[in-house]
Fold these 2 entries.
Entry 1:
Amino acid sequence: MNCSNCGSRISTLKCEYCGTLNAASPQQKAILSEHGKKRANLVEKLKTIEKMKMPESIKQKKVEVIQKQIIELDNHKLD
Ligand SMILES: [Zn+2]
């Protein structure tokens, strides 16, 4: 989406360029809520893995995979 104030391409409601807090459309609200749920799930998974007993190298790999998924989510919020 684009910022309603300066027109910059933005991926979060708050514009990184001018700081305007843009209003979310119903569709975007749905995306954000879905995104929040997915993210919460991934964070939970991460916590679970950290508590699990497994070789450190395997744990590290699992953690990396989930961290990547979280970053992906954060990067594609409102596309
Ligand atoms: Zn802006």
Entry 2:
Amino acid sequence: MHEADESWDTHGRFGVLESIAVLPEMRHRGIGRKLMSALYAELRRLGVTVLDIGVVAMNESARRFYESQGFRPWLVHYLGAIPNQKS
Ligand SMILES: CC(C)(COP(=O)(O)OP(=O)(O)OC[C@H]1O[C@@H](n2cnc3c(N)ncnc32)[C@H](O)[C@@H]1OP(=O)(O)O)[C@@H](O)C(=O)NCCC(=O)NCCS
């Protein structure tokens, strides 16, 4: 859980979902959806209405899953090696 962030409107405190995973052989049976429902219930109980979810950009399957839950891409993070110092 994070306090409201001044750099954007997070509607007060917001939840942060770092990761969820379902065993490969158990996927596409609604377990992920149930996990998300349990998370929403807990966040509602805490009075939190906004959820921030981090997903590796290449993980298209997870992105489709979260988008099926109504979430949309928001921030994009870039990661890379720092360029060598120029002489
Ligand atoms: C993402 C993950 C948690 C989803 O769990 P799940 O139990 O398979 O999801 P559900 O069965 O509840 O799927 C709910 C709906 O999401 C969508 N969905 C889920 N996985 C999808 C996929 N690979 N492609 C397209 N849509 C998908 C579908 O609408 C699905 O409904 P349907 O199966 O009836 O078509 C699971 O695939 C997983 O553990 N992935 C590996 C770990 C990971 O990448 N975690 C997220 C990164 S933080």
